[in-house]
Design the sequence.
């Protein structure tokens, strides 16, 4: 049965039957369709932004887990980066200094990185596989860095000890501009007793008042080696080394005082059993006098060393 439409006429106060044209009918259908489409769009928009589907919830959970893993991996890489920076710092400022080597250039440590786009199109499963592999490598790298850091800690202690030991070796000449030795180490004639006796050091003739310098780091000893040495200083250097400076006119340091290599400790004289102004210098290793000539190697050229060596070989009369 065909539905009829009526229109109320206020003038006649009656309902009049309305005949709908095709155009009018089309407008009504279009309005209903547009309203339906608009409602559908609003519903879809609400569902998309405010209502999560089970699949979306699963994806969000996976994304959150992946984010947590990435943050953890980033933290671990930061820790490893700090450990590596510590190793680089030790390499540049400790070990290379000990061996007098230049630091590694920054251009080699931090080369320019080219942007890599290989991972832009990875699928989720591929990304998870790479994440697991990266974590495994990070674990291995963490262990290696920890072992290497402990090794460097040990090397640092050894290097520090070696540096102290090197500073304790009497390695410079006790007098500046010292190119000849008046009397060497070994059998020499005593200037007073006129007999061939064991000379436990070397004699270097120099004018009275010539400055005398410590040949290594050490501490001024309180021991008195004997009146025959006159005014004398003994330095204890540690590592079984001592040096003795005898027949001085006066000292510039006090017993118990710490001195550095090259520091002024006294002046040349002729006190004690001496026949003229000179320095009697001894190097003592493990309690036994050794030839001091073999310990001059820092502030001397090969030519100067050969000259000292030749002059020390003459069996002549010692000055003390």
Sequence:
């Amino acid at each position: 049965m065909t539905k009829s439409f009526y229109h109320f006429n206020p003038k006649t106060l009656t309902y009049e039957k309305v005949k709908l044209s095709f155009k009018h009918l089309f407008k009504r259908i279009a309005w209903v369709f547009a309203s339906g489409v608009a409602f559908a769009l609003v519903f879809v928009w609400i569902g998309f932004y405010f209502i999560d589907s089970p699949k979306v919830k699963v994806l969000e959970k996976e994304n959150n887990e992946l984010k947590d893993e990435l943050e953890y991996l980033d933290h671990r890489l930061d820790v490893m980066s700090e450990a590596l920076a510590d190793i680089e710092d030790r390499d540049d400022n400790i070990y290379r200094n000990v061996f007098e080597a230049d630091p590694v250039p920054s251009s080699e440590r931090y080369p320019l990185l080219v942007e890599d786009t290989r991972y832009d199109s990875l699928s989720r499963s591929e990304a998870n596989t790479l994440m697991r592999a990266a974590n495994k490598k990070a674990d291995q790298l963490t262990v290696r860095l920890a072992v290497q850091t402990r090794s460097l800690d040990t090397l640092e202690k050894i290097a520090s000890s070696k540096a102290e030991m090197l500073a304790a070796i009497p390695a410079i000449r006790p007098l500046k501009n010292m190119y000849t030795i008046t009397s060497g180490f070994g059998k020499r004639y005593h200037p007073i007793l006129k007999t061939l006796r064991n000379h436990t050091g070397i004699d270097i003739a120099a004018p009275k008042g010539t400055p005398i310098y410590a040949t290594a780091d050490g501490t001024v000893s309180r021991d008195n080696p004997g009146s025959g040495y006159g005014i004398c200083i003994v330095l204890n250097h540690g590592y079984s080394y001592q040096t003795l400076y005898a027949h001085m006119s006066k000292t510039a340091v006090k017993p118990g005082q710490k001195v550095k290599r090259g520091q002024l400790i006294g002046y040349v004289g002729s006190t004690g059993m001496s026949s003229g102004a000179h320095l009697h210098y001894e190097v003592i290793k493990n309690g036994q006098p050794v030839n001091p000539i073999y310990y001059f190697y820092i502030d001397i050229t090969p030519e100067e060393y050969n000259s000292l060596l030749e002059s020390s070989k003459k069996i002549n009369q010692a000055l003390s």
User: Anything to note?
Assistant: The chain has three domains: 5-50, 54-168, 186-312.
